[in-house]
């Protein structure tokens, strides 16, 4: 059985097909343009692929509540053409199969739970730190939606004492995304992250903000694993700086070996590398397929 | 059927008995002393009450994982006699009934879900702001435990621009609890909270810290309701200040009517007043009773 997977990012889409063993057999990628163009390419890709289900991890905000009339929509985004776009509805008209549907970061968290660094755990956080910052939340064996869905990229953090950058978030100025996303690094230092030397002062400041948000997230949700992905986290010198800063922040308050002795196994890169989102979409599709099968056999 | 309920706080214990309809029929309260004394009083209270189950919401940190050898223990507390105290084990020797067991704040959150301000919802946060600060987390229909359990009272917040108080948390100095718990207010102003006029500058500062932690918690967990209890929240002038500050912080980013038009129904006092913790313990006991019944009838 083939399962379709769509990682629907704000800047690019990745469509793939995989199997029940969690192997991605093929995929393509294209830029995120107007939905007429982009969803057209998605439909073209899956035509004749005969997928048994499709999983989607999408940029947001999106509607996740199955009882909502807008379930499956991208909602209030400023991205041209995508506001109130019936993403799932358009796909369903072409491919009447079961769908998995969640945020891009929740999908990535789920992929890591099923096949990656959080395999077998009942909780984890998945951060993506790149063009923007997002956080997927998996708790007590379930992806967290709540009222809308988590938007942990926009938490407020204390300012680094040596940082007078004002932040670039149009909503919050100096929230986490406003201070630590890729465009913030570039605006602060007039260079892109990958152009800065690995011992540049930028990285200690970057780690400071990320670590503070992780500290607060640990205190609020007590995850079994914290996974850091996205383009900025390709700067692997950040990991030890972040772990050290989280440990400093917690100051021994949380009495758990993971926090005090095994931090290098607690705050980790994605087990699925840069494909956590696509694998996550596959896992969501596979789950939707199995749920549909169970629902049929229960009738 | 009578169900026992224990709200085991760090300064006082409340023991009660209630029924399946969620009515507390009687309760007593006594100070938290050495466990030999305090658990002795608990045992004395429940002797001859013939309860079918007991629910406990306890101060912590506590062990919540059923597979742990220390399940039911209070673990690393500095409170004399309570470190590694086998709380549930001691009770079980006297009353061999099903037990519900969770943190005091998770219990209160659960009480509010079953009979209070979050009735019927699948997610909420319960803050207690008093001698200390704690946060119970209920997400996707489950109390969140994770690696240990949430300790949301100790999140780091930005400093209020007019506040130079250094904070009193022995671990973190100026974390939320260090800046906003009752003893912090007293240390900052040399008066207890209830002695300060309702228009004192203290309350705007207090609301600033609480609102910041709520803002970040909303962004991280997207709760359907935020419930604020505890002694400090008896200062009802705080509610409008907190709601206004949360709205200011979010700045329209989360597109939900609850956040933008109905904030007074979103950030609310406990529906069960100061008894949320005791009702929560009753609800945990009742749940344990039902689970045991179901387990028996499934055999």
From TrEMBL, chains A, B:
Q: Which cofactor does it need?
A: Mg(2+)
For this protein, what is any one GO molecular function term?
Answer: metal ion binding
SUPFAM superfamilies in the cross-refs = Actin-like ATPase domain
Keyword Zinc part of the UniProt annotation:
yes
Could you say which protein family the record assigns here? Belongs to the ROK (NagC/XylR) family.
Reaction(s) catalysed by this chain's protein: D-fructose + ATP = D-fructose 6-phosphate + ADP + H(+)
Protein's name in the database? fructokinase
**Record keywords, A-Z:** ATP-binding, Carbohydrate metabolism, Kinase, Magnesium, Metal-binding, Nucleotide-binding, Transferase, Zinc
């Amino acid at each position: 059985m083939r399962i379709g997977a769509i990682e629907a990012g704000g800047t690019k889409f990745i469509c793939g097909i995989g199997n029940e063993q969690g192997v991605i057999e093929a995929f393509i990628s294209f830029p995120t343009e107007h939905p007429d163009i982009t969803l057209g390419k998605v439909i073209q890709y899956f035509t004749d692929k005969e997928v048994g289900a499709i999983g989607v991890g999408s940029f947001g905000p999106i509607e996740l509540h199955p009882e909502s009339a807008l379930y499956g929509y991208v909602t209030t985004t400023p991205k041209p053409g995508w506001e109130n776009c019936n993403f799932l509805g358009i796909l369903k008209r072409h491919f009447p199969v079961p769908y998995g549907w969640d945020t891009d970061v929740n999908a990535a968290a789920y992929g890591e739970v099923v096949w990656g660094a959080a395999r077998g755990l009942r909780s984890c956080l998945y951060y993506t730190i790149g063009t923007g910052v997002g956080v997927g939340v998996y708790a007590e064996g379930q992806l967290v939606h709540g009222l809308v869905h988590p938007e942990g990229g926009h938490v407020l953090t204390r300012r680094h004492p040596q940082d007078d950058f004002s932040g670039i978030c149009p909503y919050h100025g100096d929230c986490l995304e406003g201070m630590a996303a890729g465009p913030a690094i570039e605006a602060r230092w007039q260079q892109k992250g990958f152009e800065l030397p690995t011992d540049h002062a930028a990285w200690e400041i970057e780690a400071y903000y990320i670590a503070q948000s992780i500290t607060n997230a640990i205190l609020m949700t007590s995850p079994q694993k914290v996974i850091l992905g996205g383009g900025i986290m390709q700067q692997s010198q950040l990991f030890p700086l972040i772990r050290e800063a989280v440990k400093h922040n917690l100051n021994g308050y949380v009495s758990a070996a993971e926090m005090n002795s095994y931090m290098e196994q607690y705050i980790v890169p994605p087990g699925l590398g840069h494909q956590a989102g696509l694998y996550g979409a596959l896992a969501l599709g596979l789950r939707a397929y199995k749920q549909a099968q169970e629902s049929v056999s229960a009738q």
